[in-house]
Amino acid sequence: MGSLGPRPQSFLVFGNGYVGNQLKDILLEQGKRVVISRARIESREQVLSELKRHKPTRVINCAGVRGTPNADWCEDHKVETIRSNVLGALNVVDTCHRLGIHVTHIGSACIYTSTEKEPHGPFKETDEPFYAGSWYGRSRLLCEQAIRHYPNLLLLRIRIPIGADLHKNNHVARMLKFEKSIKSGTVLPNLLPGAIILSENDETGIYNLVTPGEISNVEIMQLAKRYIRPNLEWQTFGLDEMLNTVKAPRAVCVMDSTKLQKKLSQYGYEVKERREALEEVFQIMTEKGL
């Protein structure tokens, strides 16, 4: 009697937002089986039901709240923020652990910060996170502290998602409204395929899923003017001015991506440097006619 062979990999993605759908599109392009769950992860029963129904070999949790139009929403919705970003994440990771399923959690790098008076960074995965200056940051900090010791967990910290589109949650589209400060960023077209590689190979632990180097709004605007908006004009202002326009403080940090680069290089995948990754984003946008 012939062997049935290894079970084909299948992905269950919690979270129907910007990053979750980007991952879904990449997985489908790769010919993988993927299901986007609309379950409310605050409900352990719903999470468990989805896991038993779809029987995935891999779970990626992208669910969580950041707030609309920005993270200030969390200041007025503290309970909802904790339910999603802490309780919900713990439900997903813990149920996957009980069922023996590898889980990738898309966390946040907004658990560190640096100021001109107290400069810190680049922050490594081994640096103890500490930033709780906003309720959003506090919820992400509590989440990481609660789940980071699970042996089935791959925890990927992202920072300011940058994609090749004009989605409202893409920093390129948001930057002229509220988010005026940026240091490290996650250029999605280059880094999300790397996240899938880590998941498929059962990698665990914490990785800063960020593009190497410091990214500035001015550089992004210059590239936007060069590639997609030749008549674009803008004004620049300092961090203190930006903070005066928002309710809650913002994490401003540079993250170290050395660990990520070394690990993905073992699988033959290149994490592109800042300028190359950003140029690629705007080249894709040009091809799309955006």
Report on this structure.
The protein has 290 residues and is an alpha/beta fold. 41% of the residues lie in helices and 12% in strands. The chain contains eleven helices and eight strands. It has helices at 18-29, 44-54, 73-76, 78-99, 135-147, 171-174, 188-200, 217-227, 239-243, 258-266, 274-288; strands at 10-14, 33-37, 58-61, 102-108, 153-158, 161-162, 186-187, 205-208. The strands form two sheets. It has a six-stranded parallel sheet with strand order 2-1-3-4-5-8, sandwiched between helices. Strands 6-7 form a two-stranded parallel ribbon. Helix 5 links the parallel strand 4 and strand 5. The radius of gyration is 19 Å and the shape is globular. 41% of the residues are buried.
